[in-house]
Design a protein that fits this description.
The complex is a heterodimer of chains A (107) and B (120). Chain A is mainly beta. Chain A has strands at residues 4-7, 10-13, 19-25, 33-38, 45-49, 53-54, 62-67, 70-75, 85-90, 97-98, 102-106. In chain B, the strands form 2 sheets. In chain B, strands 2, 4, 5, 6, 9, 10 and 11 form a 7-stranded mixed β-sheet that branches. In chain B, 37% of the residues are buried. Classes of the chains: A mainly beta (107), B mainly beta (120). The interface between A and B is medium-sized, with 22 and 19 residues.
Amino acid sequence: DIQMTQSPSSLSVSVGDRVAITCRASQSVSTYLNWYQQKAGKAPKLLIYAASSLQSGVPSRFSGSGSGTDFTLTISSLQPEDFATYYCQQSYSTPWTFGQGTKVEIK
Amino acid sequence: QVQLQQSGPGLVKASQTLSLTCAISGDSVSSNSAVWNWIRQSPSRGLEWLGRTYYRSKWYNDYAVSVKSRITINPDTSKNQFSLQLNSVTPEDTAVYYCARAKSGSYLDWGQGTLVTVSS
């Protein structure tokens, strides 16, 4: 199975801050990499697919980059509704696997 | 707009069978482009894919190695839904279970989640 490792595991930030979350795959996944946002008690929500494509309806302050083994989710200016846990997920090979999550908390 | 509605018990006794159903609206379980999945989430395991079913001229199933001997996912075309059965459960199977629709490599739509507690 492909292992997905996110860093950091958590971070404390302020509204308006720029946030970058990284995801590393144990082998190349090309650009078969997605990002999700999960709020407490809710199902994950797709933000970014194919490493850098913004899902319909997702604010443009979210962006994704990377290919191969190293990927980044960037939030350009954090808004109050963005405090949540973020997960990366590869769909290069079955089983599709998730990172362990990065919790974004209020400073 | 696709919606997935989960149903099933939230409490199962150890050694018994966990059964959940996911009713689909806005798409068909027989779609030639969608894949229907079960995923669970727990503090110890994180988000863990359990298995999937999909139709590409015939029905296919794939299961995670960790549960392969205990799991069955079945489509029900008459009710436009799919189900999860997990046999011989233990407390380690306690988790929030989600059904999810995937297309083109992404989980686009999710059920509301069901917390299943396995009691010993």
